[in-house]
Amino acid sequence: MSRKVYCIASFKPKPGREDTVFKALQALEPNAHREDACLKYTVTRHIDNPFAQGTSYPIVFHEVWANREAFEAHCQRREIREFFATHLEADDGDIEDANVCVYTDEPNGFDAPPV
């Protein structure tokens, strides 16, 4: 049974603040990579491509965590809470909107042996 948790966190910066948001998110990477259960933690920017013309917020974090508990502990770290408080929740923050979703790679009804 896979216990991995996949998180996609998309960010819509306020006009003219994309570089500021991208740099602020990049600054979170080094400490997240120090967390033992962090398997992947990478901030990316949307680029134009003729083979992928969907719509998305321009900045997206791709995260893979060893388990749900590790992901939830990461979310409670002071650095992460302060990021959201400063950049999203504050009236003068740099982010207009964010969409954070968590996924599993297990199909419904998967009959994995107990751990």
Give an overview in words.
The protein contains 4 helices and 4 strands. It has helices at residues 18-26, 29-33, 68-75, 78-89, and strands spanning 5-13, 38-45, 59-65, 95-103. The model has no long low-confidence stretch (mean pLDDT 93). The protein has a single domain, classed as Alpha-Beta Plaits. The chain has 115 residues and is of the alpha+beta class. The protein has a 4-stranded antiparallel beta sheet. Helices cover 30% and strands 29% of the residues.
CATH architecture: 2-Layer Sandwich
Helix vs. strand class: alpha+beta
Number of domains: 1
Helix content: 25-40%
User: Number of DSSP helices?
Assistant: 4
Biggest sheet strand order reads: 2-3-1-4
Cα(first) to Cα(last) distance is 8 Å
Low-confidence stretches: none
Q: Sheet bearing the most strands, described? A: 4 strands, antiparallel
CATH class: Alpha Beta
The CATH topology turns out to be Alpha-Beta Plaits
SSE string? EHHEEHHE
Residue-averaged pLDDT: 93
Task: Give Rg in angstroms.
Answer: 16 Å
Number of strands: 4
What is the general shape?
Answer: globular
Q: Assess the beta-strand content as a share of residues.
A: 25-35%
Compact overview of the structure:
The chain is an alpha+beta fold. Helix content is 30%, strand content 29%.
